[in-house]
Amino acid sequence: MRLLIVSYYFPPAESVGARRPGALAAFALQQGWDVRVLTTVAAGQGDEPTLVPEDRVIRAEPSPQLPRVRRIEAVPADGEVARPVPRLTRLRAKANRSLVRAGLELLVPDPQLNWVRPAIRAFRRSAGDWRPDVVLVSAPPFSGFLVAAALANRLRVPWVADYRDLWSVGNEYWVRSAPRRAVDEKLERRLLRSVTACVTVSEPLAETVRRTFGVDTHVVMNGIDRRPSPAGSVDAAPVGGGRATLTLAHTGYVYPGRRDPGPLLEAIALLGDDASRVHVTFAGEDHGIVDVAAGRAGVRESVTNLGYVPPEKSWRIQADADALVLLMWNDPRDAGTVTGKIFDYLQARRPILLLGYEGGVAAKLLRDRGAGVVCNDPAAIAARLREWLAVKERTGRLPAVSAAAMDGLFREDQLGSYLDILRDAAGRAHHTRRPRSR
């Protein structure tokens, strides 16, 4: 089988969006498939391992280059004194925010639109006589759908759409107007008229695609990417001397309005004198949200905000923590979201505290696997923290999550069924394929 994977993100890029297509490409190669990858220019950028030979990867640089918007922090870092912001700096920041909003509104379907034509040209120039049996596109960004649909039409081959997140009917973390979302849905509906099948990461999301667009949609979960566990991290020796301190960690983005650390920080404040015995480390971009929430709760001394850290340090932070914090949206509309971070957390084997929708797929996964708890009320979270403090006081370490919690959740456990879906898509199209007229 000849497979073309179209993905804006691909290793060695460190983006979490690169993991799923990267793992699928490597797995398909191991199974004897003839794989090519069409992606952006990133051969020397990022540290993620690339398991696909570079001669099988076609890298197209977006053109024209769009301006990069530099973020200006809304609040000073912990321990720093706020300084007056020069008027010119404030004006530039306001202009940058306006530019971002305009880009989200006007660049359809996303700011990666400048990759579509270069990607199509790069494939036509580099592929030679090679022709896929099926094209798979992994998104977001959804500009990749335009690339895949155009190539599939030109080559007269089927294409399959992989939704890591949903598009026009999904949970947008960035605000877009109703007219803009209507434009996205119309474009998505038009593109999906020619798709052979869709794939996404959970059954609620798959049902949304089926119901909205009437497209055959399958579920292939994300999975745990195998990596060496940091030595001694799972069953570390008890910490001696003094009263125990409970260490929590959250790694990854904190999005405004959807991933709210407020209830956790309010829970720490409810601990009274014991609040000084709980410490939370946040590692990842947070748009100033953590500092504001910590100040509002009066627990700044219980919080360390590291900002962005590379993946290896993120994994070390996860492994060294007593427990891990997973922030999600506490709303039924988030029922089908299964963030890739949950699989990183499972591999760390530390208990997980999920703040999010209790009836969602992620919450059920943690409960079924005995890997964590779901709490949203500050009082309930405070009670859980007290329990964990008592356990650490007695034993020096919270028990590790059982290794059995990971059974069947590794990436390779999911990808066999993915190849079956792609093989079926190619087979269904084989009988109806006609030579393209010239």
Spatial order of the strands in the main sheet? 3-2-1-4-5-6-7
Fraction in helix: 25-40%
* Average pLDDT metric: 87
- Estimated structural class: alpha/beta
- The overall strand count is 13
Count of distinct structural domains = 2
> Uncertain segments of ≥5 residues (pLDDT<50)?
70-83, 231-241, 434-438
Looking at CATH, the homologous superfamily of the largest domain is: Glycogen Phosphorylase B
Count of DSSP H/I helices:
13
In whole angstroms, how far apart are the ends?
26 Å
SSE series: EHEEHHEHEHEHEEHEHEHEHEHEHH
Question: Could you describe the 3D structure shown?
Answer:
- This protein is an alpha/beta fold and 438 residues long.
- The chain has 2 domains: 2-64 and 108-223 and 411-430, 3-Layer(aba) Sandwich (Rossmann fold), CATH 3.40.50; 246-406, Glycogen Phosphorylase B (Rossmann fold).
- Helix content is 38%, strand content 15%.
- The chain contains 13 helices and 13 strands.
- The chain has helices spanning 19-30, 87-106, 116-126, 143-155, 178-192, 203-213, 262-270, 289-297, 311-320, 341-348, 361-369, 378-395, 411-430; strands at 2-7, 34-40, 57-60, 134-139, 159-163, 197-200, 217-219, 246-251, 278-283, 303-307, 323-327, 352-355, 372-374.
- Helix 1 (19-30) packs across helix 13 (411-430) and helix 7 (262-270) packs across helix 12.
- It is globular and about 70 Å long.
- Mean pLDDT is 87; it is low at 70-83, 231-241 and 434-438.
